[in-house]
């Protein structure tokens, strides 16, 4: 055991810090730190900067042009990026679809789609959940019927994050009704400009537009857009979900969240003293730091245990639960740190170009909306209840 | 002991409940909230006519209720509909106006729904403190001059009058030296910046720049402001807690209904024991909260008032938040949408933690007050 970084890892950390210091535009980090809404162009700008530096796909295998970063390198990049206020990479193409294509796609698909993911030609979104198929994903109904050299797609996907910006969607579709529900699912790639695809916004409880419904009416998709084999999609879907969860602990974001909370607690006063010195508040903050300290190591242990490039096993479900609950508790304490100023919420103030004076402290406006928005994290990506099922079944044999 | 309401009070509760059920679905609530004043003047007028404002005040003050239980049953029902009309502001301001017979005319206007009065007490640095007042009042030839800033004034942008706490003497946190002044909203030097709250209500920042008011603007005795604020604060704490109880009832009912109808893995998700047990805990906590509302309502006018109010408000912050979060979690993605009502109930329940002291504020107050009786 050695909890210290090696000299190579320290050099790597310096390299990454140098990159963020030099290449992360001030305009973007300012938005991230003040929790303003990022535009599509903001996301694309950052995507391009990362790609130019070779960091966008650094976790990809070298055979596909990546740097085969290990768990420690990925953790350093995550933590430093959050500390500098870097935008989160939109994960659907580079972190979710790409590993599936590398493992199960045809060479032609790899050569066609992977470069377009990197250069930003394609913005991918995820077509997994349906109105009747959330936690029970395998019950999905959207159909794909083979007709000559096409599949014809009919059905509806939902909770499609940033689908309003996407031009491609990867979908789980039903190609067979026989056998277990898992056996009739296929994984297919759909150009969203195809006639019959319609995106409808879903407004979240705090008023933001992040997710969408995507409707498919007689959508013709060429058979070469099928990934892997017909009716094997469930295997690919699970592979993708394992990759989705590999960054789920959210260590960097939690660390940045705690720093922000401490900043607020030093500024807020209670009984004439900084809130940070209040014993009850300090106790609550200390509990969060205890959990985070342990989670950092749990995260690293689980990620390192997974062999080079392979997705981690069911242990990652523990990280999903712990990471989301911890982040939610930071949001909760941040809300409470504000006192009455947790209540005002001017949605337009989250957009760039809003030039009025803030109501109360300049950090107050997004906090409660963020608290409510983050309730989604224990629901999406396999709800925390599903994660507990995975732990009890797969790890404990219950 | 008798845990039944009197017939009159039960009728009051039923009447408000029926009004909310019949006239106040979530779409009309959003519609009222999004209007310029942030509520429906028509609904406010109807409820005033039904006597719902009057029920919050004693007969001697022109009302026909005013006990803790009257306040609790009315606000519980208002909470069930997430009613955005300015009842809380009315209760707070009216409680103070009722302490001064010279203010009867304005109180009558408030009771009849003609007038909306907001209590402008909190300040940018006051957090939940009652005595932290920087706003100054200085005596002038014919009255007073007010200067200062008031923060998160509930219904402050739709009120026609603002009840302002200001300091005639003493240092910022002194208990002595506070007085209350009634100020017409359109008086020179009153700057109101209204805004929505995250849970769909309206509040305002109010700046007072050399606001000249007459000597008849003083409400109650000079220097006696803290005692008046204390009364209003106690009534308000009970009211929003009862409101939270109403919202909790609906959030739990909706969640229960969802568990019975939403099918995954071929069965209603309510068949899963993992969810059954959590639902059972939510029900239990709801009844704990109901008991705490009863305790606080029954002690609103006894010397154990503060202890019971702090027990209640701590529970709302602690168990209420848990219920609000669980209601979302057990609904899954549906509860994250604007369109589906349960998220709005959760927002209100959690934001009530930020009125009159949160969970930790009241935990500390209980620690200071010691154990009851």
Could you walk me through the main structural features you see in this protein, from its secondary elements to its overall organization?
The complex is a heterodimer of chains A (398) and B (373). Chain A contains 12 helices and 10 strands. Chain A has helices at residues 7-23, 26-33, 40-53, 71-84, 91-104, 107-118, 233-244, 251-267, 279-305, 316-337, 367-373, 384-395, and strands at residues 124-127, 143-147, 150-157, 168-174, 185-191, 197-203, 209-222, 226-227, 269-270, 273-274. In chain A, the strands form 3 sheets. Chain A has a 4-stranded mixed beta sheet with strand order 1-4-5-8. Chain A has a 4-stranded antiparallel beta sheet with strand order 2-3-7-6, with no helix packed on it. In chain A, helix 1 packs parallel to helix 4 (71-84). The longest helix of chain A has 27 residues, at 279-305. Chain A is globular and about 75 Å long. The mean pLDDT of chain A is 95. In chain B, the strands form 3 sheets. A 4-stranded mixed beta sheet of chain B has the order 1-4-5-8. A 4-stranded antiparallel beta sheet of chain B has the order 2-3-7-6, with no helix packed on it. The longest helix of chain B is centred in the middle third of the chain and has 37 residues, at 225-261. At the A-B interface, strand 9, helix 9, helix 10, helix 11 and helix 12 of A face strand 6, strand 9, helix 9, helix 10 and helix 11 of B.
Compact description:
The complex is a heterodimer of chains A (398) and B (373). Helix content of chain A is 44%, strand content 15%.
Strand content of chain A: 5-15%
Structural class designation of chain A: alpha+beta
Oligomer: heterodimer
Please tell me the total number of domains of chain A: 3
Please compute the radius of gyration of chain B using only Cα atoms. 21 Å
Helix count, DSSP H or I runs of 4 or more residues of chain A = 12
Question: What's the shape of chain B?
Answer: globular
The N- and C-terminal alpha carbons of chain A lie at a distance of 32 Å
**Overall morphology of chain A:** globular
CATH class of the largest domain in chain A: Mainly Alpha
Provide the CATH architecture of the largest domain in chain B.
Up-down Bundle
Helix content of chain A: 40-55%
Amount of helix of chain B: 40-55%
Structural class of chain B: alpha+beta
Tell me about the biggest sheet of chain A?
4 strands, mixed
Instruction: Please tell me the overall pLDDT of chain B.
Output: 97
Describe the main β-sheet of chain B briefly: 4 strands, mixed
Order of helices and strands of chain B: HHHHHHEEEEEEEEHEEHHHH
